[in-house]
Write a structure and sequence with these properties.
CATH topology of the largest domain: Rossmann fold
Radius of gyration: 27 Å
CATH class of the largest domain: Alpha Beta
CATH architecture of the largest domain: 3-Layer(aba) Sandwich
C-alpha cells in the first residue's frame, strides 16, 4: 500500500515541499530502501525509525518497503524525515488512515525510544505550510514553539511518535503550541555605557551609528576601551520589530550546528563577534548545501570585527557586497540561495602593528613601512563602506580613577529609539528601516541640502579625496545626526560632524 506524508527541505532560509512516499508490501527480501537523493543522516533514519516503531508499540514493516523523498533532484539532509517516514510506514501498513496525513506538514527527528527531537528551519516550514494552505504543522516541542510565532498556521507539538500517531488517528486532542516568549536585552549581559570612563567622542560616534544603523570603525591603542565599548552597543539598540525578529529567527533556525536557535533569545538583536582566523565561507556563508555565515547570522544586529587588519584579506573583501546590498547570494553545485544580511558593522583596530603610534605615553616601535603595510590590510573599497571612523585615544589613570560615570545605556537608548521612530515614520510603507539603508533616490529626497552646504561638502570631498559613495554616506550620517537633534532639515553643524567622521579615510590610506 502507498502512503504519502508531506515534509520539507531547507534551501537557504526557505523551505521546499518534500513528498515522503512510503510503499510497503513489495515483493522481495524484507528491507527498507531509501531513495530521493538522501544524505548520510537521512539514510541512517531507517534504523532509527525501526527502533522507534518497536519501542512505541508498533511492528515495523515485514516486507520490502521503498521510501521515496520527492522531488528527486533536491538534496535531502538531516534527520528531520524520521517522523514522517515512521508515520508513512504506519499508514502504508493500514494502521493509520492515509487521508489523515494530507492536512499536515510533518518533520521531526526520532530517538530510538520514539521520542522526538528538534529540527532546523521550523519557521521556514511554517511559512511553507501557510503558502500551501495546509491545516497545520506537526513538530517536536522546541521547534513547534518557534513555528507557532506564525499565528496564521496551526502548530502542534508532538513529543513522541506514539503521541503523533494517536493525534492523527483522532484518539487524542492537542492544544496549539505556545509561541516562544519575547526576551529583552539586559545590561547585566551586555554591560552599561555608564561603566565607560572618558571617550566622549567615541561614545557620540557609537550613538550616531546605532541611531542610523551605520557602520563604525574605532582606531586606538591597546586598552583604550574599543572592545569594551563595542560589547555595550547592544544595550543601546532599539528592540526589533516583529517582522525583524521573525527574519532573525528564520536565519537562526536554519543555521548549522553550533548556532542553534536556542542560543538566541527571540526579540533580541543578534550580536556576532567571529575570531580573526575565520574563513571566507564562515564569514559569508556557503558549504556543500549553502547555508548562512556570520554576516547573515548578524542580520538586523551587529557584526563586531575586533583587530580588523588581522582578518584575512580575502575574508574582509567578501564583505563589500553584503555591506552595500544587505543580501548575499551564494552559488554552489547543490544550488543557489540568497540570504539576508542587513547588519551593522562595528570594527576595531590598532593604529600600527605595535599599537602605540601617536600615544604620548608609549614609544611606537614600528617603521613607516610596517605601519603602511599594516594599514593597507584594510582596503580602500572596504573603508569606503564604513560610515564613521573615530579615534579612541588612550585613557589616563587619572581619568580612570576620577572621571564621573558617563550617561547610562538607558538614557542613550531613549535618544536612539526616538531617532529610529522618526526614521520609521519617514520610510513608512517601504522596506527601509533606518537611514543607512536609504537608496540613492531616497538620499536625494530625504537629505536635500542648500547650495551653501553643498559647496561646503564639495570642498571637504576634494580635500579628503573621497569617493562618490562617501558623498551619499556623509549625507546619510548627517540626516541621522539631524534626527537625533529632532531637526527637520540638515544644518551646517550636522553636516560638519558627519564630515569629520570621514577624516581617517586619508590617514589610513597613507
Amino acid at each position: 500500500m502507498l502512503a504519502t506524508v508531506f515534509s520539507a527541505a531547507l534551501q537557504g532560509i526557505e523551505a521546499e515541499l518534500v513528498h515522503v512516499e512510503v510503499n510497503a508490501g513489495e515483493t522481495g527480501e524484507p528491507d527498507t530502501v531509501l531513495v530521493g537523493l538522501p544524505d548520510a543522516a537521512v539514510k541512517e533514519s531507517k534504523d532509527r525509525v525501526s527502533s522507534a516503531l518497536s519501542n512505541s508499540g508498533f511492528k515495523p514493516p515485514e516486507t520490502r518497503t521503498t521510501v521515496n523523498l520527492a522531488p528527486g533532484h533536491l538534496r535531502k539532509e538531516g534527520p528531520c524525515y524520521d517522523l514522517p517516514i515512521a508515520l508513512g510506514m504506519l499508514a502504508a501498513t493500514d494502521r493509520l488512515a492515509p487521508d489523515r496525513l494530507d492536512d499536515f506538514l510533518i518533520a521531526g527527528e526520532l530517538s530510538l525510544s520514539g521520542a522526538t527531537r528538534s529540527v532546523r528551519g521550523a519557521l521556514a516550514m511554517a511559512r511553507l505550510a501557510q503558502r500551501l494552505g495546509k491545516k497545520g504543522l506537526l513538530l517536536p516541542p522546541e521547534s513547534a514553539a518557534q513555528a507557532a510565532l506564525l499565528s496564521a498556521v496551526e502548530v502542534y507539538a508532538v513529543s513522541s511518535l506514539d503521541q503523533a500517531f494517536r493525534f492523527l488517528a483522532g484518539e487524542v486532542e492537542l492544544a496549539r503550541a505556545t509561541p516562544l516568549p519575547t526576551a529583552s536585552v539586559s545590561t547585566e549581559d551586555t554591560g552599561d555605557f555608564a561603566d565607560v570612563k572618558g571617550q566622549h567622542a567615541v561614545r557620540r560616534a557609537v550613538e550616531v551609528a546605532v541611531a542610523g544603523g551605520h557602520n563604525l570603525l574605532m582606531i586606538g591603542p591597546p586598552g583604550s576601551g574599543k572592545s569594551m565599548i563595542a560589547k555595550r552597543v547592544p544595550s543601546i539598540m532599539p528592540d526589533p520589530s516583529l517582522d525583524e525578529a521573525l527574519e532573525v529567527l528564520s536565519v537562526q533556525s536554519v543555521a548549522a550546528a553550533g548556532s542553534h536557535p536556542a542560543d538566541h533569545a527571540f526579540g533580541c538583536r543578534p550580536v556576532r563577534s567571529p575570531h580573526h582566523t575565520i574563513s571566507d565561507v564562515g564569514l559569508l556563508g556557503g558549504g556543500t548545501v549553502p547555508g548562512p555565515g556570520e554576516v547573515s547570522l548578524a542580520h538586523h544586529g551587529v557584526l563586531f570585527l575586533d583587530e580588523l587588519p588581522e582578518f584575512k584579506r580575502s575574508a574582509l573583501e567578501v564583505l563589500r557586497q553584503p555591506l552595500e546590498d544587505g543580501v548575499v547570494t551564494i552559488s554552489r553545485s547543490a544550488g543557489k540561495v540568497t540570504l539576508p544580511c542587513a547588519f551593522m558593522l562595528v570594527a576595531a583596530m590598532n593604529p600600527c602593528p605595535c599599537g602605540y603610534l601617536g600615544d604620548a605615553d608609549h614609544a611606537c616601535r614600528c617603521t613607516p613601512t610596517q605601519v603602511q603595510r599594516y594599514r593597507a590590510r584594510v582596503s580602500g573599497p572596504l573603508l569606503d563602506r564604513i560610515d564613521l571612523h573615530v579615534e579612541a585615544p588612550a585613557v589616563s589613570v587619572s581619568e580612570l580613577r576620577n572621571a564621573a560615570p558617563g550617561e547610562s545605556s538607558a538614557t542613550i537608548r531613549a535618544r536612539v529609539a526616538a531617532a529610529r521612530t522618526r526614521q520609521q515614520t519617514r520610510f513608512a510603507g517601504t522596506k527601509i528601516t533606518c537611514n543607512a539603508r536609504m537608496t540613492h533616490a531616497q538620499v536625494r529626497r530625504v537629505c536635500a541640502i542648500d547650495r551653501e552646504l553643498g559647496d561646503l561638502l564639495e570642498r571637504a570631498m576634494n580635500q579628503l579625496s573621497l569617493s562618490a559613495r562617501a558623498y551619499d554616506r556623509i549625507l546619510k550620517v548627517a540626516r541621522t545626526i539631524a534626527d537625533l537633534a529632532d531637526a527637520e532639515r540638515i544644518a551646517a553643524p550636522h553636516l560638519l560632524e558627519a564630515i569629520q567622521y570621514r577624516s581617517l579615510d586619508r590617514t589610513l590610506a597613507l
